[in-house]
Amino acid sequence: MTSDIEIAQAASLQPIVALARERLAIPEEALDPYGRDKAKLSLEYLSGLESGPDGKLILVTAISPTPAGEGKTTTAIGLGDALARIGKRPVVALRQPSLGPVFGMKGGAAGGGRAQLAPMEDINLQFTGDFGAVGLAHNLLAAMLDNHVHHGNALGVDLRRVGWPRVLELNDRALRSVVLGLGGPANGTPREGGFDIVAASEVMAILCLATSREDLKSRLADIEVARTREGRPVRARDLLAQGAMATLLRDAIRPNLVQTLEGTPAIVHGGPFANIAHGCNSVLATRAALKLGDYAITEAGFGADLGAEKFIDIKCRSSGLRPDVAVVVATVRALKYHGGVPVAALDRADAGAIDRGMANLERHLRNLREVFGLRCVVAINGFQGDRDDEVEQVRARVAALRVPVAAATHWAHGGAGAEELARAVVAAAQEAPTAMRFAYDDGQSLWDKTLAVATAVYGAQDIAASASARARIAMLEDEGFAHLPVCIAKTPYSFSTDATLRAAPVGHRLDIREVRLAAGARFVVMVCGDVMTMPGLPRAPAAEVIDIDARGRISGLR
Which of 67, 206, 71, 207 lies closest to 492, judged by CA? Predict the structure, then answer.
């Protein structure tokens, strides 16, 4: 079987400047090419588009992820290609992959098979340097904080209450907790610290929610890094750090233009994880796609309980964006898994497991339709080995819910395999707009906002928190942060905080382990269960098979 990277390397791509001109009417002076196949878009050019009409916003989300994979990004890309094939002007707007999963367990995130973004290797491996810039800006703030303490600590920073770790764009469990400042007075003051992955950085979240360079700098200034001995917050502005941080992000804030294997324009920008951050590409990229095409196809990370909820409650609340249609990706294999079938047996026929696993898809559809008020279409993403009768079983179950459903084979056939899905999305998008709703109101307490998500979206019976987490919530509310949305960090593999609970568990409890203020991103993170903000590598990481030959040709990337 031809691998994803072999398919990508065999593709013939249009020069990005020509594609921008012919597909999007973007003049050459509005682009800064990074080689032949990718370019940065001018913020000044994009701001000039704001008076024009918006296209339809299509949000691609999915059922709860499984080891078998659902192909959400692949479906978003295939849908974009299919819309182009039926005469529409689509623009795909997606996140950039993190190197953590690329070298870890999940692999890359540029799609797969015949539905991929290109240049696939570049997108998966450092791309235009945006992640590096985010890491540098984050770590500069950490260095300036420690430097301030070293040179007299005029702000009175309490080293026991420093809440700004350093970051690294790789999975490395050994760096979760470290001791800094060893080696004598010249090397700083010893204290405990640690590392998060770049995708979990508040700077990444800020980059993806900022609407301009001015907004970016204002948000960076609001970042809280520590507390004083008297309990007062120490922010980036107190360290005079926001200007230098914004300077490092000068180009990173500009969306990146690439293309699919079939030449559909794609804007790839930002990459916060959905299990530990808000899981969406940048507001700037999504708005650009809406202005440049008549259909903007974006996605939210992991299952709809994490990604779509945060897309709506955080990104849409902040930006005013409203999806016209939510595409929910499901696979026969994933439904069997949620029905209790082990990974090794997913290729076997099992109608009963599909029926049991449908509870997961039905919960996500109920949430999107009844909690958030969105119009939905279900995409049955085809895998090799799928049985026709089982695909039809899923189709019939979804149709009985009065939800449009389409089978798609874009992995194998590119846009031609997703034309049924494209027509279903167009039909849904042309219906009368629905009134999108949030899961909670701004005026509710942080506790009640978390409870609302846990009960209405996750099916939990209640929430609980440690004494320290409760005290932190109370303190943040006293300080005027109660109006912020909550960003729940938990396992993506279950509606609960127990990754082994498949399908649609009910009656469980959401346990809040830690509470973090993201004042610049303007949300409060509720860290739940055993989720980690610095992942570790699996027993057999993808890095073991990634290689490069004497000609510079990469292999093993997926």
Answer: 67
What are residue 487's phi and psi, to 5 degrees? -120, 105
Bridge partners (DSSP) listed for residue 488: 526
Tokens of 241: 């750090």
- Domain over 4-121+252-429 is classified CATH 3.40.50.300: yes
Secondary structure (H, E, C), 197-218: EHHHCHHHHHHHHCCCHHHHHH
Reduced 3-state DSSP string for 368-402: HHHHCCCCEEEEEECCCCCCHHHHHHHHHHHHCCC
Annotated active-site residue in 383, 438, 447, 495 = 383
- Give the active site residue among 74, 211, 286, 533: 74
Q: Can the peptide bond before residue 53 be classed as cis, meaning omega within 30 degrees of 0?
A: no
Q: Of these residues, 109, 118, 274, 418, which one is catalytic? A: 274
Among 302, 372, 438, 481, the active-site one is 302
The residue annotated as part of the active site, out of 131, 164, 411, 438, is 411
**106 part of the active site:** yes
Q: How confident is the model at residue 552 (pLDDT cuts 50, 70, 90)?
A: very high
According to DSSP, the β-strands at 178-180 and 191-193 are antiparallel
Strand pairing report for 195-197 and 56-62 = unpaired
Name the residue among 92, 124, 135, 119 with its Cα closest to residue 34: 119
Quote the distance between the C-alpha of residue 53 and its chain's center.
Answer: 26
**Domain 4-121+252-429 shares a fold with domain 130-247:** no
Q: Are strands 256-260 and 325-330 parallel, antiparallel or unpaired?
A: unpaired
Give the CA distances from residue 169 to residues 132, 133, 280, 507, 540, in Å, rounded to whole numbers and listed in that order: 8, 11, 18, 37, 19
Query: What CATH fold (topology level) applies to the domain 446-528?
Result: Formyltetrahydrofolate synthetase; domain 3 (3.10.410)
The amino acid at residue 458 is: Y
> Partners of 18 in the beta sheet?
none
Residue 302 appears among annotated catalytic residues: yes
* Three-state DSSP class for residue 300: strand
Distance in angstroms (rounded) separating the CA atoms of residues 224 and 340: 44
CATH 3.30.1510.10 holds for 130-247:
yes
Residue 108 has pLDDT above 90, yes or no: no
CA–CA gap between residue 249 and residue 243 (Å, rounded): 10
- Which pLDDT score, from 0 to 100, does residue 163 have? 95
What secondary structure does DSSP assign to 450-483, as a single string?
HHHHHHHTS--SEEEE-HHHHHHHHHHHHTT-TT
Tens digits of residue pLDDT in 364-410: 999 999 999 999 999 999 998 899 999 999 999 999 999 999 999 99
pTM of the model: 0.96
Catalytic residue among 21, 85, 106, 369: 106
Q: How far apart are CA 94 and CA 304, in angstroms?
A: 16
Whether residue 274 lies in the annotated active site: yes
Concerning whether 95 is annotated as a catalytic residue, the answer is yes
The span from the CA of 489 to the CA of 97, in Å, is 19
For residue 129, give both structure tokens. 């340097």
Name the residue ranges covered by the structural domains of the chain. Answer: 4-121+252-429, 130-247, 446-528
| 528-543 pLDDT per residue, tens | 999 989 999 999 999 9
